[in-house]
Write a structure and sequence with these properties.
54% helix; three-stranded antiparallel β-sheet; 3 domains; membrane; Exosortase-1; cell membrane; 13% strand; alpha+beta; transmembrane helix; eight-stranded antiparallel β-sheet
Length: 521
């Protein structure tokens, strides 16, 4: 009897497969094969994304996205199977563009571009192998693929600042005397930090993913969809500020330890569920898509003249597969060739003498040492002038930029994660450098200003550094990268900026000074 049951359960999918047209069966096989090739050819990138989905709470919600994508396709399948898939050669342009995006990320060490590229290649296979009408029917699920990419950590500092401003405003409104300094709020009950984990970024990203899904599934009106999306951006930010204020308010009554303990219980997906439930409850009465309505307008897709015009570029499935393979091979070979580039660097570098300044022992109040993973050389020292100004100088020299050796990568530079130092606020820029104010153990302030030197580039912008690295790699040009960080403890307040400015005036041209240390000019 068990064999009969098994045979019956397998007969349904087999009959459904045989009922498909030859074009659909061939298209599904080719698409599945292309996706398997993408999975294994870029296994490192998929593995890195999967680890972020699993290990980083900001991206835990992404674990649900593959199931949501499957459901969206299943929802459209009754209309989809009535279309005829046809391979389409302009899909190779889309695939090449996605592969080029991955290539730029591979050349610059920018994981975001690499991961966005592999996800985009996944989507580009649909118009290439199944054609424009099927793509039009799947346009929303294909767009929803973007939520597979772990993005949003770049917003942490901005959200920390916004949350701190909301919190201090509510704290003052509730009659509690408080003083704000960057993301730190000092109250009678103690000093509170709006830390990275409290920025609310994970709830914002998850709410945006939910809002986009709900806007498509529950609404037909574009005005209502827009309002839904705006609510999914504004509500989690405001709710997070209210939560932070509630913790501070409770601490004034019950003590900081009790308030922090309650906050750790509430602050999590339980908090997200409450916010999500409130948004759904408010939006429910405005849902305007019929429950039994089709997910796509099949008649509009079948009768669209512009889609008929695009179908003139149809090709055979075999040609599409060959083109797919050539694009992937070209991207991988180009990346491999660029990754072997390395500029010559000296066997040894030293911090130079600076007129009016003397080298002294490096004895910070709280140990501070920037991170420069993958650098060929690192230097850290302290200078002092006759007026008592002290400046800490960190230099890192890289023969090349890439995976595991990124001067501007996450966790690299002046602020090392999980250290005694926390980001406090932006600091005034010095000659286009990136200024940051750091706080050590809640008591010692420090200003750090970062510059990057790559070829003719001198900037504190990580984005400009990445762009310069990409251009060099595309042209197979090897240039070393120098990272310079000038820092000083801000005691008394304002002293650090004065010390850094005075040191800069003594070094002369910053570009020539950095090139002299790296011995590249």
């Amino acid at each position: 009897m068990s064999l009969d049951v098994a045979s019956t359960s397998l007969a349904g999918p087999a009959r459904a497969w045989r009922a498909l047209s030859p074009q659909w069966r061939g298209g599904i096989i080719r698409l599945g094969a292309a996706w398997l090739v993408l999975l294994f050819a870029f296994l490192g990138d998929w593995g890195a994304m999967a680890r972020q989905w699993w290990d980083i709470s900001t991206y835990n919600h992404v674990l649900l996205i593959p199931a949501i994508l499957g459901w969206l396709v299943w929802q459209r399948w009754p209309q989809l199977e009535r279309l005829t898939p046809t391979a389409w050669w302009p899909g190779l342009i889309l695939l090449a563009g996605a592969a080029f995006l991955w290539l730029l990320g591979a050349m610059s060490g920018l994981d975001l571009a690499r991961q966005a590229g592999v996800v985009a290649m996944l989507g580009a296979c649909v118009p290439l192998i199944l054609g424009v009408r099927v793509t039009a029917a799947l346009i929303f699920p294909l767009g929803y693929l973007v939520f597979l990419v772990p993005i949003g950590e770049e917003l942490v500092n901005v959200l920390q600042t916004i949350t701190a401003e909301i919190t201090i405003a509510l704290t003052h409104l509730s009659g509690i005397p408080a003083r704000i300094d960057g993301v730190f709020i000092d109250t009678p009950a103690g000093l509170f930090e709006v830390a990275e984990a409290c920025s609310g970024v994970k709830f914002l990203i998850a709410m945006v993913a939910f809002g986009v899904l709900a806007a498509n599934v529950c609404f037909l009106s574009w005005r209502r969809r827009t309002v839904m999306l705006l609510a999914c951006v504004a509500v989690p930010i405001l709710a997070n500020g209210i939560r932070a204020w509630g913790t501070i308010y409770a601490a004034q009554i019950f003590g900081i330890e009790a308030a922090a303990g309650f906050d750790h219980i509430v602050y999590g997906w339980f908090f997200f569920a409450i916010v999500l439930a409130l948004v759904i409850a408010c939006a429910w009465r405005f849902f305007d898509r019929p429950l039994d309505g089709p997910a796509i307008d099949l008649a509009a897709i079948e009768n669209a003249g512009w889609l008929a015009g695009l179908e003139r570029f149809a090709i055979s499935g075999t040609v599409a597969v060959i083109g797919f393979a050539l694009v992937l091979i070209a991207a991988r070979c180009w990346a491999l060739a660029a990754d072997t580039l390395a500029a010559p660097v000296p066997a040894r570098i030293d911090l130079p003498a600076v007129e009016g300044w003397a080298r002294v022992d490096y004895t910070p109040t709280i140990w501070w040492e920037p991170r420069a993973q993958g650098a060929d050389h690192r230097l850290l020292g302290r200078y002092r002038d006759g007026r008592g100004h002290q400046v800490d100088v960190f230099v890192a020299l890289y023969a090349s930029q890439g995976e595991g050796r990124e001067a501007g990568g996450f966790g690299q530079g002046a602020l090392v994660p999980a250290s005694a130092w926390a980001w406090q606020s932006p600091a005034p820029s010095v000659e286009a450098g990136k200024g940051e104010r750091l706080l050590g153990n809640g008591r010692i302030e420090r200003i750090a200003v970062t510059w990057y030197r790559q070829g003719e580039l001198l900037s504190g912008s990580n984005a400009r550094l990445k762009l310069a690295v990409i251009v060099d790699h595309l042209l197979f040009r090897a240039e070393p990268t120098t990272m310079l960080i000038l820092s000083a403890e801000d005691t008394p307040p304002g002293r650090a900026e004065q010390s850094i400015t005075a040191f800069r005036a003594s070094t002369g041209s910053l570009a020539r000074w950095m090139d002299g240390i790296a011995q590249v000019r």
